[in-house]
Amino acid sequence: MKPTIAFVTGGYSGEAEISYKSALTISANIDREKYTAYTIDIRKDGWWYTPENGNPQIVDKNDFSIQVGGNTIYFDAVLIGIHGTPGEDGKLQGYFDMLGLPYTSCDVSTSALTFNKRFTTAVAAMGGIHVAKSVMLVADLFDNPETLVKQLQFPVFVKPNNGGSSIGMSKVLAPSEELGTAIEKAFREDNQVLVEEFIAGREITVGVLRTEGEIITLPLTEIKSQNEFFDFEAKYLGKSEEITPAQVPDSIAEKVRAAAKKIYSLLNCRGIVRMDFIYNEAVGEPFFLEVNTVPGQSEASIVPQQVKAYGWTLKEFYSRLIDEALSGNQGLGPQQGSGQ
User: Which site from 81, 87, 241, 266 is most exposed, i.e. has the minimal number of CB atoms within 10 Å?
Assistant: First the structure.
C-alpha cells in the first residue's frame, strides 16, 4: 500500500503568499505513483482539506485526520511547505511530534532556533563559523537608535529577527534618520529587530539536505541583485540575477560547501534547508547570514534551480525528502498505518 502523505501549505504570517506559490511547484511534483497525497491548507480560520469536487472540510486536530468518501484518512508523514509561522518556527513540528507523525523539515528545537536569526548566528559563531557583527533590539527595552552607532560600523542591515522572505528589511548606509525609520519598519513585523553590519563580498546561497545517510550540498547559486540588496522584490519579482551553478573558483566553492555542511550538523538540521553566505575576499572566508529551514519552492525560487543543476528531477527530490522522513525513528502516530 502506498504511503499516505499530507502536504501542508498556507500559514499564519505574510509569508503565506510565498507558501501558496511554493505549493504549486511541490504539488505538481509529488510522485502520485509512489504516494497518496492530500493538500492541507493551514490558515488562521482553520485547517482545511478541499476535495477536487467538493466543499472545504475541516481537519480533525485531535489526530490530524480528514474525511474522504465516508472514510477517515490518516497520514504516514507530512511534507511541510509553510514558510513562516507555524510551519517554520517549530509550532507544527511540536504538534506532529505529539502525534508521533514524521515530517520533512527540521525538528522543534532546530526550527525554533533558526527562526531567530540572532540566536542562529550566535550558535554558528560558537562553532567557529564566520558571522557578521550584530545587535538585537527588543521592543520593550529599546530606546534610542543612536546607541547603535557606537557598536556597529555602517552600512548595516535592519531586519525582523524572526521571519523570512526579506519582509521588513532595509539597508542603512550611514547613521541618520533613516536608521530610526528602518527600525520602525522592522518592528512592524516583529518585536525583535536585528541590526547587522554589512559584509562586502559575493552573495552565495546553497541548499543542503541529508539523504540516504549523507549530507549533500546542492550546486551553489550566486545572487546579483538589481536592487540595493536581495529584498522581497529581488527575490520574488525578478529584480535579481541568480547564477546556478555559481561561477566561482573551486577554492571558494569548497569553503562554502564545508561551512554549510558543518552548520547543518551543528544545528542538527533535517530535510532541505537553504543557507545564505557572503564570501568576503579580504578575509578569504564565507560569512554565514542565516538558514531557511523551509526554503521557497516556487518557480522563482533558488532550491528548485539547484536541484535541476544537481541532475535530479523535482519529483525525485521531493521523493527523497518524503522517504527520509518515512525512514526516520520518529515512529507512527496513533493512527498506525496508511490511509484508512
Answer: 241
CA neighbor of 223 nearest in space, from 249, 208, 206, 205: 205
Highest mean pLDDT among 77-86, 114-123, 175-184: 77-86
Looking at the DSSP bridge assignments, the partners of residue 6 are 38, 78
Contact 209, 217 (CB under 8 A): no
Q: How far is CA 326 from CA 31, 75, 154, in A?
A: 15, 11, 47
**In this predicted model, what pLDDT tens digit does every residue of 205-226 receive, in sequence order?**
999 999 998 999 999 999 987 6
pTM value? Answer: 0.85
Domain boundaries, the chain: 4-104+320-326, 112-130+200-293, 134-197
At residue 43, what is the residue type? Answer: R
The cell for 49 is 482539506
| More confident site: 24 or 333 | 24
What confidence score (pLDDT) does residue 231 get? 44
Q: Are 8 and 82 in contact (CB under 8 A)?
A: yes
Residue 97: how many other CB atoms lie within 10 Å:
16
Residue 244's nearest CA partner among 278, 203, 280 is: 203
Measured between alpha carbons, how far is 88 from 8 in angstroms, rounded to an integer? Answer: 12
Helix (H) or strand (E) holding 27: helix 16-28
Preceding omega of 219 cis (within 30 degrees of 0):
no
Residue in 290, 202, 285 with CA at minimum distance from that of residue 248? 202
Q: Distance (Å, rounded) from C-alpha 300 to C-alpha 240?
A: 10
Give me the pLDDT at residue 332, please.
38
| Average pLDDT rounded to a whole number, residues 45-57 | 90
Report, in angstroms and rounded to the nearest whole number, the Rg of the chain calculated over CA atoms: 20
- 3-state SS, residue 1: coil
Report strand pairing: 36-43 vs 4-10. Answer: parallel
Classified by CATH at the fold level, domain 112-130+200-293 comes out as D-amino Acid Aminotransferase; Chain A, domain 1 (3.30.470)
Class of domain 4-104+320-326: alpha beta
CA-angle at 19, arms to 211 and 1, nearest 5°? 50
